[in-house]
Write a structure and sequence with these properties.
Length: 51
């Protein structure tokens, strides 16, 4: 039983690895058109306190 489970898991892992890249070379995402929305700001973190 244990040997069959190990074999099944090994075959599943081989199948998953074999499927990597099956659809071809990776393609970068297409550049989106400008929406006219801009974002700006700042972020701060730390510890504040007084005596």
């Amino acid at each position: 039983m244990t040997r069959a489970l190990v074999l099944l898991l090994a075959l599943a892992a081989c199948g998953a690895l074999a499927a990597c890249g099956v659809d071809g070379e990776p393609q970068p995402p297409e550049r989106e058109t400008s929406t006219g929305v801009t974002m700006s700001g700042s972020a701060e973190f730390g510890v504040a306190g007084g005596f």
